[in-house]
């Protein structure tokens, strides 16, 4: 409880507000000692605001640590709490995953805590700060903390997920050899994959026609792949274009042509023998984040992808300001 007390009554209490004395600055949250009392008296103050922790409350650092341990998974580490704030860091490269509704519920239900996170489904790197748990000064009610810890749905609900896809194939279909262009798409995709500890396993080339695409999709290397990326010398401008037709000839399925992302409109997503097939848009040659990244990440982290999921990419699907001339 916040109280205004005489300096002489502040011993071993928590300083509620930072105070500049004549000699040093006493920072809020510190336990007031005898030397502090002398400094405060010498500065001419008679009363100060302190926080008087009751027996029914738990210290902010201990509480933030206990709460953090409960809500995170094994791939997240906690820095030693300072001033009631426990910073959370990724232990590995991966994808940050949590239920937004649970995060909202925690922050809405308890006035004495604040949990701030990066957005869910964001790629994170090892040792990257991904969020923090803050107890709002300077303690939390023991009953409130016990209530949270008793709810299993909060247990480990924040996690960093490792990529599950291991065998990734890139097919480049072209009627002419273009070493510079091929190197660019290979390097840009490998750069993306490296962020979550993956790389292209197979790189295959074929002519840019339906039958050659069909045949290479039915090859042994593709059969051994979990994810197939199809990059053509021309963009996929229609659901009956060369790459979609080649996939259908191989007895695959085109689940969605086009994506509500910009860049990345001309993306195709399909399946063949339970493996993900992505028709790669031209914007993937750039390492700048675009619509291709959203689908690639979902495929690599074993998300179920369907037409509804792709339609939902429209929320946040614009990656740049575009000025078009009439």
Describe this entry's structure for a reader.
- With about 325 residues, this protein is α+β, with helices and mostly antiparallel strands.
- It folds into 3 domains: about 1-50, Molybdopterin biosynthesis moea protein, domain 2 (Alpha-Beta Complex), CATH 3.90.105.10; about 55-160, Aldehyde Oxidoreductase, domain 3, CATH 3.90.1170; about 170-315, Molybdenum Cofactor Biosythetic Enzyme, Chain A, CATH 3.40.980.10.
- About 30% of the residues lie in helices and about 25% in strands.
- It is built from 10 helices and 20 strands.
- The protein has a 6-stranded mixed sheet, with helices on both faces. The protein has a 4-stranded antiparallel sheet with strand order 7-8-12-10.
- The mean pLDDT is about 95.
Keywords:
326 residues, six-stranded mixed beta sheet, Molybdopterin biosynthesis moea protein, domain 2, alpha+beta, Aldehyde Oxidoreductase, domain 3, 20 strands, four-stranded antiparallel beta sheet, 26% strand, Molybdenum Cofactor Biosythetic Enzyme, Chain A
